[in-house]
Automatic annotation (TrEMBL):
<dbReference type="InterPro" id="IPR024403">
    <property type="entry name" value="DHOase_cat"/>
</dbReference>
<dbReference type="InterPro" id="IPR013108">
    <property type="entry name" value="Amidohydro_3"/>
</dbReference>
<dbReference type="GO" id="GO:0004038">
    <property type="term" value="F:allantoinase activity"/>
</dbReference>
<keyword id="KW-0378">Hydrolase</keyword>
<dbReference type="InterPro" id="IPR050138">
    <property type="entry name" value="DHOase/Allantoinase_Hydrolase"/>
</dbReference>
<keyword id="KW-0665">Pyrimidine biosynthesis</keyword>
<dbReference type="GO" id="GO:0046872">
    <property type="term" value="F:metal ion binding"/>
</dbReference>
<dbReference type="GO" id="GO:0004151">
    <property type="term" value="F:dihydroorotase activity"/>
</dbReference>
<dbReference type="Pfam" id="PF12890">
    <property type="entry name" value="DHOase"/>
</dbReference>
<feature type="domain" description="Dihydroorotase catalytic">
    <location>
        <begin position="48"/>
        <end position="234"/>
    </location>
</feature>
<feature type="domain" description="Amidohydrolase 3">
    <location>
        <begin position="340"/>
        <end position="420"/>
    </location>
</feature>
<dbReference type="InterPro" id="IPR004722">
    <property type="entry name" value="DHOase"/>
</dbReference>
<dbReference type="Pfam" id="PF07969">
    <property type="entry name" value="Amidohydro_3"/>
</dbReference>
<dbReference type="InterPro" id="IPR032466">
    <property type="entry name" value="Metal_Hydrolase"/>
</dbReference>
<dbReference type="GO" id="GO:0005737">
    <property type="term" value="C:cytoplasm"/>
</dbReference>
<protein>
    <submittedName>
        <fullName>Amidohydrolase family protein</fullName>
    </submittedName>
</protein>
<keyword id="KW-0862">Zinc</keyword>
Amino acid sequence: MTLYFDNARLIDPESRMDDIGSLLVENGHIIDRDTPCPDKGERIDCDGKCLAPGIIDTGVKIGEPGERHKESFRTAGLAAAAGGVTTIVTRPDTMPAIDNPETLEFFIRRGAEATSINIAPLAALTRGRNGREMVEVGFLLDAGAVGFTDGDHVITDTKVMSRCLTYARSLGALVIGHPQEPGLSSGASVTSGKFASLRGLPSVSAMAERMGLERDIALVEMSGVRYHADQVTTATALPTLTRAKADGLDVTAGISIHHLTLNEFDVEGYRTFFKLKPPLRSEEDRLAMIEAVRTGVIDIVSSMHTPQDEESKRLPYEEAASGAVGLETLLPAALRLYHSEHLDLPTLFRAMSFNPAKRLGLPGGRLSKGAPADLVLFDPDTPFVMDRFKLQSKSKNTPYDGQRMQGRVRGTWVAGKQVFGA
């Protein structure tokens, strides 16, 4: 099958290109750029709209097995396609956790049956994510795991963590940590400060993130493991991260789009759709993290898609579940940073597509010859008002509900096959 994308504004994060051109696709792979239109196949007039590598979204929670009422593979796949996401890197915090090859094989098989979106699964680092006994890392790698994490269940026993990292290093496995000091973070729902005090909400100091990151970085230095911090959200943690990279450690870091576009004042009115983990930070932190993405200190921007049902969110703020859906809102939310002139499109897609592919060893994230034709066509300027009830996800817990946004996906292709069109 041959596709010819003509008159497209090509966004290539690998070469940092943003220019009008064309793209030739055959048999699910990119063949070349700016070539004459072939006689065979389908010509797609992009009308000057942006054509970029499909988004590779890390930290996506799927409710199968155990919480299918919150999100299924089918609904997550529909949401991903509508949001220009062509690969979802899934979390192991299912019920039961993905901590053995049998559960992982079921998970992969179920995903392949239910959606055309690429699935790149993470496995748990310890059994049941309980922080006590290491999983069978080698067997899980063989079964298809692209990395290992206990998610927001921070391993409190440093000796167990050290053993896990050392063993993962021997197999070349990527470990993803959640940098928070668990004692300080326990029970907190907002970031400490004047705002938290005025609202009377349980809070945690931003220093808890730095403390958690400092511990993990020390263990990385000791073990030599490949390490990724799932979310670094505070300015106080940035010097630790910068120093680790300068010292040559194999360390990367991510952040959710919510922490780049929202701040602690959005919690005004105790709106539980804004309750996240880690909690929203100060405006100074938000601006510092945008700059960190621009300079490459923060490598990856993701949705941290966490579906929660109405019963989990319609509770007093401190009792409500944390998390927000984001597969469908990641791109328009990220385009806020483009329209505010904080980040250009190649930088955004470097963080949302190229860097995740590079870190996880995936083939996508670029527009170069031979890359898979995982593509998103979007209009960055189309305005709309977010209506959570129009989202494809089963759960509708988005903090952007009712907000004015810009940017609509016009088409999504996975391996040259169109999975969404508007």
